[in-house]
Design a protein that fits this description.
It is built from 6 helices and 14 strands. By secondary structure, the protein is an alpha+beta fold. A hairpin with a 5-residue loop joins strand 8 and strand 9. The chain starts with a helix and ends with a strand.
């Protein structure tokens, strides 16, 4: 009751330490723990559209769970989205948004707008106050031009000419700050995005494996899967494991007598006896 009496009434309450202390003291839950995520995603606007890029490493704590994870998600024919953070959150958030945009296109008969996806992402993420771990970079081309938008897990957004997110974002941003310029050509833009993702892969333990990029223009969307392979690993073994007899020394050997027949009887109490 003392916990309930201390709760504030009305408006937003961002102070959960009273709730957490009460639950921990009663043994209901343990102390909340922070989750370390890892990814490098980025994007830039060039003279004909937008280019997005991402690495392909998915981690589960200190374990590399997937070496070739696809982090560039489809939202609409003219809009793509890179996701960093919790893999499940980014996957289901982008799938849900793709379904909403598809229904909107069917109802209106018009092309999807980037601002529609951004406003809906921001509304939902702000509602959950950062508990949905989805850091997103949206890129798209619509009737209003080329757009590159960074959306944080807390629901704020920024329209930028270039941006990076994820644990490798600082290394990628260093490349953009040094080499980005307005009106980049397609090839220069692709090379710059690849270099930025490579910087994240080489300087961040949570990022790794390969480089994926996506080019969005008024003519359509073109995906370049594994355009650069930084940490290629061949799973094929040159020969199977074969060890000759005697490789492992036998220290002790047991032999059990052979049993020809097992008779099962029931005693007076109905219990089975095995002889």
């Amino acid at each position: 009751m003392s916990y309930l009496e201390q709760l504030k009434t009305g408006g937003f309450d961002f102070e959960n330490h009273l709730r957490n202390s009460a639950l921990v003291s009663k043994g209901v839950i343990g102390e909340p723990k922070k989750t370390k995520t890892g990814t490098t995603i980025c994007g830039l606007i060039f003279k004909d559209g937008v280019i997005l890029g991402a690495d392909t490493r998915a981690t589960a704590g200190t374990i590399v769970a997937d070496k070739n994870c696809f982090k560039i998600h489809y939202l609409a024919p003219n809009i793509q989205c890179c996701g960093a953070g919790t893999a499940a959150d980014t996957q289901f958030m982008t799938e849900e948004m793709a379904h909403q945009l598809e229904l909107l296109r069917l109802n209106t008969g018009r092309q999807s707008r980037v601002v529609t996806a951004v406003s809906r992402f921001c509304t939902k993420l702000h509602r959950y106050q950062g508990h949905i771990g989805a850091a997103l970079i949206l890129g798209g081309v619509d009737v209003a031009g080329s757009h590159l938008v960074m959306v944080s897990p807390y629901g704020n957004c920024s329209y930028l000419p270039y941006t990076t997110m994820g644990s490798g974002s600082l290394a990628a941003m260093a490349v953009f700050e040094a080499k980005y310029r307005d009106d980049l050509s397609l090839e220069d833009g692709k090379n710059l995005v690849i270099e930025a993702i490579e910087a994240g892969i080489n300087h961040d333990l949570g990022s790794g494996s390969n480089v994926d990029i996506c080019v969005i223009t008024t003519k359509g969307t073109e995906m370049f899967r594994n355009i650069k392979t930084e940490n290629k690993k061949d799973f094929a073994r040159p020969q199977p494991y074969e060890f000759p007899v005697g490789t492992t020394e036998i220290m002790r050997e047991y032999k059990f007598p052979k049993v020809d027949k097992i008779e099962i009887e029931e005693n007076r109490e109905g219990k089975m006896l095995i002889e």
